[in-house]
Amino acid sequence: AGFAHTGRTMVKGAWAGEHPRDRISGNALSPEFTVDPKTGELAPTPGQIVANVTCQGCTTLCSVRVRVDAETNTVLRAVGNPYSPLSTDPFLPYETPVRDSLTSLSRFEEKGLKGRSTACGRGNAVLQMITSPMRITSPLKRVGPRGSGEWQKISLEQLVAEIAEGGDLFGEGPVEGLRALRDLETPIDPAAPEFGPKANQVGLIAPVNDGRDAFVRRFFNLAYGTINYVGHGSYCGGAYRSGSGAVFGDFKKMPHAKPDMQNAEFVLFIGTAPSNAGNPFKRQAALAGKYRTDGELNYVVVDPVLTNADNRATPGRTNWVPIRPGTDGALVMGMMGWMFDNGRIDTNYLAQPNGKVAEAAGEAGWCNATHLVIVEKGHPREGRMLRASDMGFVALEEKDRYGDGDAFVVIDASGAPAAHDVAGGAAALFHDGVVQTSVGPVAVKTSLALLREAAKARSIEDYSAICGVPVEVIAGLAEEFTSHGKKAAANTHGGMMAGNGFYNAFSVVTLNTLVGNLNWKGGTIFGNGRFPDSGEGPRYNLASFEGAVKPSGLPVSRPIPYEKSSEFKARKAAGKAYPASQPWYPNAPQLTTEYMTSALGEGYPYRLKALFFWNSNPVYGIPGMGLASVEKLKDPKVLPLVVSIDPFINETSAFADYIVPDTVMYESWGWTSAWGGVPTKLTSARWPVVDPRNDKTPDGEPVQMETFLIRLAKTLGLPGFGAGAIPDVDGNLHPLEKPEDWYLRGGANIAWLGKKPLPDASDDDIALSGIERILPRLKATLKEEEWRKVAFVLARGGRFENQSGGFVEDKAGHTFDKGLLVYNEALATSRNAMTGKRWTGTATFTPPAFADGTEMRSVHKAEDWPFELVSSKSVLISSLTILATRLRHLHPSNPVGLNVEDAARLGISTGDHIRLTTPGGAAEGVAIVRHGVMPGVIAVEHGFGHKELGARAHTIDGERQPEIAGIGAGVNLNDLGIADPTRKGVSVWLDPVAGSAVRQGLPARVEKLASA
Amino acid sequence: MDRSRRNFLGLGAAAVGTATLQPATVEAREARHGGDAAHRWAMVVDLRKCVGCQACTMACIMENRVPEDSFRTIVSTYEVAENGKSATYMLPRLCNHCENPPCTPVCPTGATYQRQDGIVVVDNSVCVGCGYCVQACPYDARFINHETLTADKCNFCVHRVDAGLLPACVETCVGGARIFGDLNDPESTVSKLVASEDVKVLKPGEGTDPRVFYIGLEAEFQGRVDGTPTLWRPSRAKAEPSLV
Amino acid sequence: MDEHILELINVTREVAWLPWAVQYFFLIGISVGAVLLSLPGYWIGRPNWTKLSRLALVVALVCGLAAPVALVSDLHQPNRFWHFYVAWRPHSWMWWGSFFIPVYIGGLLFYAWAALRPEIAAQGRVDSRLGRLYRLVAMGEPRGAGLMKLAGAVVLVGAGLVALYTGVEVYVVRAQILWHTPLLPFQFLLTGLAGALGLVLVLNPIVGDGDARVEVKANRLLALVLAGVMVLGMVWLGLGYFDLDAANAQALRTVAASPAWRNTAIWAALATLVPFLIALVKPRGTGILTGLIAIHSAWMFRWTVFIDGQSIPKTGAGFYEYALPRGAEGLLGIVGTAGLCLFLLVVITALLPMPKRPATGAAETAFLHPAE
Ligand SMILES: Nc1nc2c(c(=O)[nH]1)N[C@H]1C(S)=C(S)[C@@H](COP(=O)(O)OP(=O)(O)OC[C@H]3O[C@@H](n4cnc5c(=O)[nH]c(N)nc54)[C@H](O)[C@@H]3O)O[C@H]1N2
Ligand SMILES: Nc1nc2c(c(=O)[nH]1)N[C@H]1C(S)=C(S)[C@@H](COP(=O)(O)OP(=O)(O)OC[C@H]3O[C@@H](n4cnc5c(=O)[nH]c(N)nc54)[C@H](O)[C@@H]3O)O[C@H]1N2
Ligand code: SF4
Ligand code: SF4
Ligand code: SF4
Ligand code: SF4
Ligand code: SF4
Ligand SMILES: [Mo]
Predict the structure, then answer these.
(1) What is the pTM of this model?
(2) Where are the beta strands (DSSP E) in A809-866?
(3) B68 reaches C (C-beta below 8 A)
(4) In angstroms, what is the span from residue A650 Cα to ligand 8's centroid?
């Protein structure tokens, strides 16, 4: 019987296996073109298209060059776009003809080695998502209860009609449609008018801006009129961004600067892991590899887990320093203490009270280190900055006092108080005394003195004991960090997602302030953002339209002071202002975390009636969210309408009433930019290089996010969509009926930015860039003088400022000019709504805590939960990339890392089956015993442990979809997330200041289940 | 590993470790055919630059349509703990296009051979899938392609190189660690690096004279690695019910 | 200094030589061993060997005919086996093997024919439906010993070439540390002999007449051969342990630390020692037991060399894990070859039933004193 197989293969003739295309190169693709290595002459390959578009393998959103097989409408491969700094270093001058850009990656003159333009491991493989069998291509409506996994396909018409009009959609009783919910007049709660109108009960959870955010915002904010539109920041790196916002003085936009890895001599990465993750992932990775080898770059990664951020082959250039989770503030404050003690702070920078004198002193920026803070106990303005009007330097009307025009006060060189903006030179750094104000003496300290106090609150030995980093290492890091002038930088991100992440991040970012490295080559740089497509552009006004709504009211996540609420007034009147029912987050932006728990579960501050998820998966991505929200999400009485706009059924969209199939990656339009870390301005293009696989409307438009929202808007009669929705500069109106009506006009705006518009694309550019495919749409949508310029942009995959714009001599070409805050007055004077206590105004160390300040470890004691869980990103697998079989097969699961000593104590060896338990849940996994994990830490690589996306089979129109065990492999740390025991009702643990989801330092225990 | 043995190994390996450009044996040279003898293609892998992103691994798979669960190249990633200090070590592996390849002479059909430009290829229309070359390669660089049922391996993306392009893994190398070029051209980057850097090769003792050189290669990693093995198992084997 | 290396990302290689290869080397080894055991009886004409050689010849035939099928099956492109014969690949031992195998199998058939010709002719004299066929195959009545001498010489050369190539083909693979030892060809030969004796012992009561003298003789021989196997094993260990041979030393170092390999080694040692002791101490009445263990031991030796050998990564750490697939690439191959052997055995013994010839007294003495 065994020979039957042999027999069968023999019968097959000369080819027992598959017959590959070529006898030597097998099934390899035909090259995209050939380049004569001697002359550089290029010969395209018929049938293959080479085009520059944007990768969505992660939020880095690199511009990449893809190869498309025109006949089969499939994307074959991706490499980098050589025009883009996100993929190339050095990148091509923007003017370069497309033809030269193609040869620039070839062997001709070894150009491809010098100007390598890359896609990363994920970027190479994620094109598999387009053809994934898990993809949905038709609108789906649930059959049976939410989450049952039973669906029926419906038409776009039905989808739009049902969502707009509502009705008894599921035989479960009436559901309010969007028409009924769009009430811009009636308040949600007459007793709390600050909540705003009923339209706010429609919310949307959107991702990172994938290049289409402005379009979706146009619908939800400006046309529909809800205020509740939120990104994923609170479960991405919200703590870092808020901490950075504290330094940059903006808690809503949360500006942040990144190390200039090309020129830095020393970078301290604390809780971010360049080239393991980090954003921009690929650019940082490329720069790390290059400059630690060929350049001056040395770096240290402080992380509980050893990752690919390290490299042993560059001894001395990269170093890993293990740390206990959630203790970075201790490390950094310890460093600061050493720096203060040893005079290793940049006094020349810190002492400059304003930008002018800073510039004169040779600095590239300034900060409020010298600004005086009122520290007088019981003073009505205790904790606030001393102002010029307090001193009688200016006479302001009462309403203008303490506003922007009311200067801060410093002690100038003569020892006298002076307004910060008129001080002619350096001011006192550590003043601690009394100044005579117009109403008498007041005790003040400089911001820097307060920071020093915070740093010296504990000894370096105490800090060392807290964070587990030896004293010499803390001192050594401080010394190294302060030994490179402005060419040293500190950075952080995901490692800050601990229960004290805000202050940890504030501390890390303040390190940069202490060496004054902002805006310096080799220091931290701000980048130059994007060429805007969707603003009030030079060609079209995509920012506003006739009838646009200005959304108003209180976002459900309460990013404003509690003291402004009706609840506060009522409670205060009742004699007990604190605690509020739930925490408020005045020092944070809108928070997805609170949409999903407090608003959904508790109806606080008010209930949402319809929730949209677009391109997001908070149930998977937020620790503890599954536990906290799924039961509520499942209940139509709690949340009557759930719509997901997504090409896949993920852990969140599995609970939707409707799923609108969206386009995937290279099928979509959009204009994206870099999240940070690029010194030059850039906008990357997304345009459909392949025909979307989704259903088509009768007029041939693919069903996707845009078609859905346009139809919904038109059905609801919303402004800003349909005929005459887009005004051009001359006031003529243009339609918004199709995606390209929006994106191509955005492209025209991009092309016209600057002193003069961009040149026209040449015929050769057009022929070689694959945009032939969409040329008819360019011509039909754009004006005669526009389409070739937009083609110029699309052919190059976007618009990129030339390399030279990044720096002007030794300073950044684009700078942040406002003063940085050593002491943040807004923070210091805002209160924890649960306790009424004020927050600390400078960087400081505070242990991980719950909303009311209760320390986590006082609830979940170390005796019961001896370990702490942390999460690190996987190099290859993320929530999305789990769908790419090639990545999954290279890295099929995420064994759980634990330290050798811990493992020895527990009798656990590599390969053993173990159970992890936290107060929030339990999960089983396989152990990997590592030296590269801090003792006491359990390291879980993020991206695995899926329950959906194919791990569970859904049924569509009675047909069972594929179910793939490998998609569910491994552990998701977020299944182990914990609730906040100090809050009422359902919650997940958030940083009390930033409201960011806590995924680092979860209390846990571990036990062995079975040997390998 | 105790100090004495490590040092002993370290020294021994260092003595033979540094790569030299040994010419091929006459036999090996005579057996070559195809390709252009004017070139000698080679790769230098600068381990200092590798970031372990596996872009090379994926690009190779996508470009060459390598079957699921098979790899022509892979970046082995290690955690090395030494004297209380741990670090990550990343080692891209692929066919070395040896100057004296032990894989070709054993082939009973001549399906695998070395081109005159040094690239070792397999003619899948001739290969009987006997697997002898797979056994003979000291680097585990070969495997039986379970779609074509013939021997498979990295071929330096010969179809791209012949088209004037770079191998897929080189083109997309994020860290810039993989450098490809012509050893016969003294001006090429690979020639310069081989001349100027302390390049090493894998298993120098095998006499294979690899033409994939490494910068930053440590003695412990030149041969079989003495450590805790990967937990990876081919999912193909897992999918098929197994008995042992 | 303390150093620990942990592989975080790496992949494993699947075996390129499947269990089919184990079967091939097992069968061809036994066939060669059995041919050697048949020579004293048929070629040299030692009467006290007749019965044993007769059994051995059947074993040689069964295994020899099944072996090439297993070999072709191990090719992933079996249909292309002819590619061997249109190439000039003198560097390749496998290529040489592709010529040696037909020489051997052809020689074996020729030799078996010559050896069994009297029996065939005898069958032809019996009036049966197949009588004509027997007569045809017998090609007349055997006359003189010339043909036999020639056939024996041919098969001896064939067997030698096969023993040489199967051993050397594997031995020359430097890259497989477990294979690259000059002892291997001898180990293959001796374990092949042990397997052949094992089969003789097992078949003696089944297809033979269960003659105790055959059992004792075969057991004595088995003890001798197993002693040789053990000596070779010790030499291998010694070469490695005392670092006399670099490749051996490396191979030993590689496997020594592994508990799985230690178990294998203990098992292999027991599988050799136990039948050796039994065969030595109580050669009578234990044939089935020693025979089965010897067969097992011969098979296991090859399984260890090929399958376990291929589980040693050439560059990576630890060992690749082998999971025997149920399909044609695994279990089915093993079961299939076993089935084929059984089928061949049934056919051969049906066509040529064991002749019942009373043994002479002299022969009996010889049986009891095989060393003479
Ligand atoms: N490979 C890969 N790269 C990506 C992404 C991806 O999915 N995969 N996604 C992108 C996105 S969306 C983002 S936001 C960025 C995030 O990029 P990073 O911030 O670099 O990544 P994270 O893994 O979130 O966190 C960084 C490190 O923090 C460590 N850490 C955990 N707890 C602590 C702690 O208490 N203290 C310190 N010091 N460290 C701690 C973790 O071990 C981890 O290695 O990456 C982007 N790049
Ligand atoms: N434990 C742990 N949790 C984490 C992290 C961690 O490191 N550890 N990382 C955090 C970070 S940094 C982030 S940014 C978040 C990310 O979390 P989210 O922003 O929620 O993003 P994803 O999880 O990537 O899920 C996005 C979903 O979009 C869908 N999608 C994919 N392609 C498309 C498309 O083309 N169009 C549309 N409409 N939808 C698409 C897929 O269904 C996918 O599941 O996760 C956070 N959660
Ligand atoms: S970093 Fe990689 S996955 Fe992320 S966008 Fe860039 S190429 Fe794609
Ligand atoms: S690495 Fe292996 S396959 Fe490649 S040439 Fe050398 S021996 Fe042959
Ligand atoms: S597998 Fe193919 S290439 Fe390799 S030795 Fe056998 S016939 Fe030659
Ligand atoms: S050269 Fe080509 S075949 Fe070889 S590893 Fe690189 S991509 Fe794969
Ligand atoms: S692509 Fe380059 S940097 Fe990335 S893993 Fe491969 S060799 Fe290393
Ligand atoms: Mo993120």
Answers:
(1) 0.95
(2) 811-812
(3) no
(4) 17
